[in-house]
Amino acid sequence: MAYSDKVLDHYENPRNVGSFAKDEPGVGxxxxxxxxxxxxxxxxxxxxxxxVIEDAKFKTFGCGSxxxxxxxxxxxxxxxxxxxxxxxxxxxxxxxxxxxxxKIHCSVxxxxxxxxxxxxxxxxxxxxxxxxKKAV
Amino acid sequence: xNGKTMRRVYMDNHATTEVDPRVVxxxxxxxxxxYGNSGSRNxxxxxxxxxxxxxxxERVAKVxxxxxxxxxxxxxxxxxxxLALKGVVEFYKEKGNHIITATTEHKAILDTCKALERKGLAxxxxxxxxxxxxxxxxxxxxxxxxxxxxxxxxxxxxEIGTIQPLHEIGKIAKERGVLFHTDATQGxxxxxVDVEAMGIDLLSMSAHKIYGPKGVGAxxxxxxNPRVRLTPQLDGGGQERGFRSGTLNVPGIVGLGxxxxxxxxxxxGENERLLRLRERLRQGIMGKLDEVFLNGHPMQxxxxxxxxxxxxxxxxxxxxxxxxxxVSSGSACTSATLExxxxxxxxxxxxxxxxxxxxFGLGRFNTEEEVDYVAERVVHEVxxxxxxxxxxxxxxxxxxLKTFNWARE
Lengths: 136, 409
Fold this sequence. Notes:
The complex is a heterodimer.
Chain A: H1 5-12, E1 27-34, E2 39-47, E3 53-61, H2 64-77, H3 82-86, H4 90-97, H5 104-135
Chain B: H1 3-6, E1 9-10, H2 21-27, H3 29-32, H4 44-64, E2 71-74, H5 77-91, E3 98-102, H6 107-118, E4 123-127, H7 137-143, E5 148-152, H8 166-176, E6 179-183, E7 202-206, E8 217-221, H9 250-286, E9 292-294, E10 305-310, H10 315-321, E11 325-326, E12 328-329, H11 342-346, H12 351-354, E13 357-361, H13 368-387, H14 390-396
Helix pairs in contact in B: 2-9, 4-9, 5-6, 9-13
């Protein structure tokens, strides 16, 4: 199977590989997939108090298309509001990277990773608010 | 082309091999000079072709310790496997309908067995294997019933290179009066095999795994002690003693014969060289990386076979990074079914490690320089992908990946 040029480019020059400290304020972490399924994505978003995604980092265990999907998502998502980011659909990733049908699941996983990271950030924010309330 | 893409290394010699120039040379006249039908009995064109086929038959037989008339030419090992299994089941149906095979066999055996089961023509026992890929001889003994007509166990495995104890299996089969077939696609012409000494009644082989052309193979069918009978699966002109109708593929057969002759002559020295290269590759990779695991048997394996799991690095992504190097992976992403290798699974290797496996198949034309290059590239790519791997990071943080609560799809 031949890979699209865009998949190859992201695979060879992945954008935003790395990690933020999980306990850093404003950081949401999403880990999706499982090792026995052959795909694990970790997506981390640094989100401002206003709910804007300021930075994103990823690490992925998976095929080239999985790596490319997560790499592309980190580019796509920066500067977006949490709401806009949450609305990103996997089809957008499929189109951008020209993923063949057998690789659609990579884009689905990337979409899941966005939702998981935002969910984690919301949960953390809720906890912070709770503990502030308790402090008062 | 730049220097990086100019270099290509073929190290997938279990999939197929480059045709040896000596084989090409032997085949060429068959296309434009001796192009007769070996079945034409009344002119020189036919006789010449027949003489070439006879010579090839002798050459193939010699390397496996058989007699020429026991060699049936086919289109390849898949056809040989189908003919052996289906032919035996059909012919011996009055005697019984039970076949014993193993879970790590090639699909040409497993799917043929499944087809026979589906049609209600046979019941099949699939023997498990140990962590190295070997069958348990006691389990084999105890699975034989009064209904058992055939044991089919491969010579060497195509993924992990594990070599089964054919001598012992042949002995057990003889003791119990059961026919013994071996799929020697990865064995015959690569490592010693002797149908007499090993008590083999049927043996499948292929030309293109041993530096011959694609589309030709053979089935050895024992003629005496016992005389093995088969119901033909192709009807027609009655060629190949009626076992396999169809005009003979003379160029292919000549190629198989030459490939086997060369194999017989060079086998010993070649295997010493391949073993040396294999160990150089193994040390070049495993000596420089942590968390890498050898799949298969440490010694009882094909000299050219190396199968390694690179924990935390998915196999297809590694293949992608080694794009100028031809190797293959047991990763799900490289299979049509999206399931990781059933062979590695049968060894008890978890899916998470099966996804990270790479098979290196060294062959006649690989050089020490290529081995060093491949080792260096593999180490570099694995390190690069591990830096990108959340699993590697988690493992280094001390997180137990087996008990972590994964968000499974």
